[in-house]
């Protein structure tokens, strides 16, 4: 009789496992309890992860939790792409120098710049941060400047200081200016009485050398980590448009829309995918724009030197015309496109799975789309047809007045920001030694980043605030597993 009972109990459990798997695959999340503990002997049946959800970047995923977690090449590259990745890595990480120099492949720095290398802002291919003290350089935060908007809504640069404030310069050239940040603390409380505090930054530009600053819009931007960029470029336009809901037809309060920006290579308007306001259409153009704005390196896409009004550009030494040749720029773009995406940690843990369910329940997935299948990448087959989990829709969303920078960037208004991908977010502290988040690094951790959300994310933020403390912690555990 005991044996018969045991067999029936085993059959019951196996049937319940089948039912649970069916419901999970159908998009439902369940937790069945016959007791009050997670002890298997109590009959507890917990949540299950999706098949393969630990592979955030599909076949480009690597599993590494070291300080170099963002710096590996995608494991599915062919031999030629692997060699080009190695060259692109060198161009990304080594300092550029003032021309003329013996290292002709990496000269032409300046005359104005924010960093001597891409890695100066994206240390270990990771995320930048605000300066730790006033006057610190090459930290990964810069100030965009504009006086209005031109064709297609493109920002118009300040006539004296350009579209970006550079706080460094080559020998013999005055640095444009510096900037300082002060913070004020904004205290608050959760409905359960738990206190929190948010810090709000104020920026002051100092030591102007090129006359009056005429810019009416000043927007701080932190350098993002760059894993998985090529996968985001490989997402079909039709897929992105299917995620958009500009008129909020489903009445969930979320109305994401694409930004349409100028693509220099094609000479046409394309959907923007990169940058805090989705103002760059391709990895190649994003890379060329960073070479120009951040380091003063000219390319075929952006051939003009960034000279201040007080300097005759014809007298400034350059590293060639252009200073980075197309072949090297293409290899740099390949490097940025094919950095492997770190895989998940603890994706099978019950607390993490429960946090994932809460993330979905309060509709954070309304903007942070969990799973997408890429289309055909135009040049890198390893990035094509990959099932990825970036937790972004790449669309613009109104994030409310508290995060607004007041700067229009093509179609993006002063309140709108692109949904940033969340993959790798739990490794920022390991790789970069900090957890500063949002476009200006004001949030000191994930919790503060959530609490700054407003606009289309106001409802989700309020639902997060109303969660029991244990559920808030589970949601944060889930985010840290990404």
Number of strands: 14
Query: What's the helix-strand series?
Result: HEHEHEEEEEHHEEHHEHEEEEHHHH
Q: How many helices in DSSP terms?
A: 12
Rg calculated over all Cα atoms: 24 Å
Question: What is the 3D shape?
Answer: globular
Helix content: 25-40%
Which residues sit in consecutive blocks of at least 5 with pLDDT less than 50? 1-41
Structural class: alpha+beta
Please list the strands of the largest sheet in the order they lie side by side: 1-10
Question: Termini, distance in Å?
Answer: 48 Å
Main sheet overview: 2 strands, parallel
The share of residues in extended strands comes to 5-15%
How many domains, in number, for the residues? 2
- Rounded mean pLDDT is 91
In short:
The protein has helices spanning 2-25, 79-93, 118-121, 229-233, 237-243, 283-295, 326-337, 350-361, 428-432, 446-452, 458-465, 469-481, and strands at residues 61-62, 112-113, 141-146, 168-169, 178-189, 195-206, 217-222, 260-263, 268-271, 341-342, 372-373, 387-388, 396-398, 416-418. By secondary structure, it is of the alpha+beta class. The chain has a two-stranded parallel sheet. It has a two-stranded antiparallel ribbon with strand order 2-4.
